Automatic annotation (TrEMBL):
Region Disordered, residue ranges: 205-227, 419-463
Compositionally skewed regions (Acidic residues) per UniProt: 438-453
Organism name: Dactylellina haptotyla (strain CBS 200.50)
Bias type Basic and acidic residues, positions: 422-434
Protein name: Anaphase-promoting complex subunit 4 WD40 domain-containing protein
Annotated Low complexity bias: 217-227
Lineage top rank: taxon: Eukaryota
Length: 463
């Protein structure tokens, strides 16, 4: 299949080894027709394509890829698309030896009834064990579901209901604990802890991030805020949507990002679960005022084995912040050079290994460029006042798409990186839309200059 808008990197930069080609570089309806033809009417898992996707209908919006991430075993890419489907792409075994880029076709397609606010694949996913090929979904007016990635099947349900209105609360963030036995859900000013084995049950614990606390009586570890003095006005009531969650795999420390530009830092929920620090991007020192003010945190990543460093990205911000958690009054480093002044969620990730580099940060932009930084190799000492060392430019970059890069996912081996791309457009106009994305906080509105090019897809590059 022709790849009409394929991007070729410069010499010496990552080499394209696989992509979805031009299948999705069009409106949803046409992309379904192209996908069905490429699959010969049958998905990789043997199911009939139209049985899964449904009958043809007129859907003029661009079928963008909202996100793509690797499963824990490194065999599969999990992607969320504008047509409210979760697709899996199993990478071919000869990925790195084939002389020409290979075409990625979905092995499975999981249609969802509404736009997913977030998903979270099971941390012990193994393609050879179907019992582990699961993911969590957050949908409007529905409970949290644990679904199969390989077949359209709901394995378990976890209701999250407001005690007064009896309406479903919708998590804007989901993350698994390192053991895979529990997961956390972030809603408006609340974090909920679930036990996976307690099917059809609500959360074990609910913690309100402001002054109020509502929690069921339980012998399980609880969150608390006794270690932080909240009389300080800037942090006295951190009441905002919990937009992203991250747990350190060794220390089990929890970081919760909010749309109010704060990061709440908790000790392990398996121990005391205390709130020990708050990063407030609204209160940066004067020398950081020149950096673009963001509009809410969308991504958090722990960046070392000890849990002392964290990467923070915002929407409508062209910088990425690196913090040392032993000194949270100001950033360790500010990564510059990224084009990201948009409400659309764009990819930011930390990679312990990337080719011959270590401890790098990668971020996609609205210009289709993936920038690469080495903040911990070039920044100065914490609090040393060395401004030239704090503002860090990319050490490398490559062109990954002709539309915004919505995710950058480095394989655990460090040898390959996957990118996804796309921007909300309509067949009626051929340029970015400004309508509501259907999720809270308008995180996927298009607000870049008019452009008739559609570049929705997933690409895999060898480093």
């Amino acid at each position: 299949m022709s790849e009409t808008t394929e991007v070729v990197p410069k010499k010496g930069l990552p080499r394209l080894v696989a992509s979805t080609g031009d299948i999705y570089q069009t409106a949803i309806t046409e992309s379904h027709a192209r996908e069905e033809a490429a699959l010969n009417g049958s998905i990789g898992n043997g199911l009939n394509y139209r049985t899964i996707i449904g009958p043809k209908s007129n859907q003029p919006n661009s079928n963008i890829f909202r996100s793509a991430e690797w499963t824990s075993d490194g065999t599969t890419l999990v992607a969320v698309t504008e047509d409210n489907c979760v697709r899996t792409f199993i990478v071919p075994p000869d990925l790195l030896t084939s002389p020409d880029p290979q075409t990625l076709l979905p092995y499975s397609i999981s249609p969802l009834p509404t736009t997913p606010y977030c998903i979270s694949p099971y941390p012990f996913f193994s393609l050879s064990d179907p019992s582990t090929t699961l993911f969590l979904t957050s949908l409007h007016s529905q409970p949290i579901h644990l679904r199969s990635l390989l077949y359209p099947h709901i394995a378990a349900t976890y209701p999250l209901i407001h005690p007064t209105t009896e309406k479903y609360l919708v998590p804007n963030s989901l993350t698994w604990t390192p053991t895979g036995t529990h997961f956390l859900a972030g809603t408006d000013s609340q974090i909920h802890l679930f036990d996976v084995s307690r099917v059809n049950s609500g959360p074990m614990e609910t913690f309100t991030t402001g002054k109020k606390r509502k929690s069921k009586s339980s012998t399980t570890p609880t969150f608390s805020s006794s270690s932080v003095d909240f009389r300080n006005g800037s942090n006295s009531s951190v009441r905002s949507i919990i937009s992203t969650l991250a747990i350190h795999p060794v220390t089990n420390n929890l970081a919760a990002g909010t749309y109010s530009r704060r990061v709440l830092l908790y000790s392990s929920p398996y121990q005391d679960g205390e709130l020990y620090s708050v990063i407030n991007l609204n209160s940066l020192p004067d020398r950081f005022k020149s950096t673009a003010r963001g509009n809410g945190i969308t991504s958090i990543s722990f960046a070392d084995g000890l849990g002392n460093r964290i990467i923070i990205a915002e929407r409508k911000s062209e910088v990425v912040y690196c913090y040392d958690l032993r000194y949270t009054s100001e950033p360790w480093a500010v990564l510059t050079g990224r084009k990201a002044a948009t409400n659309q969620k764009l990819g930011v990730s930390f990679a312990p290994v990337y080719g011959d580099r270590t401890n790098v940060v990668l971020a996609g932009g609205t210009d289709g460029i993936v920038n690469i930084w080495e903040p911990f190799a070039s920044s100065g000492s914490v609090g040393d006042g060395g401004e030239s060392n704090i503002f860090i430019k990319p050490v490398d970059s490559f062109s990954a798409a002709n539309d915004p890069v919505t995710s950058v996912a480095v394989h655990a081996s460090g040898a390959v990186v996957a990118t996804s791309s796309g921007e909300r457009k309509s067949l009626k106009s051929g340029h970015p839309e400004t309508q509501d994305s259907g999720t809270d906080e308008d995180d996927d509105k298009g607000d870049t200059p008019e452009d008739s090019l559609w570049d929705n897809g997933v690409r895999v590059w060898t480093v």
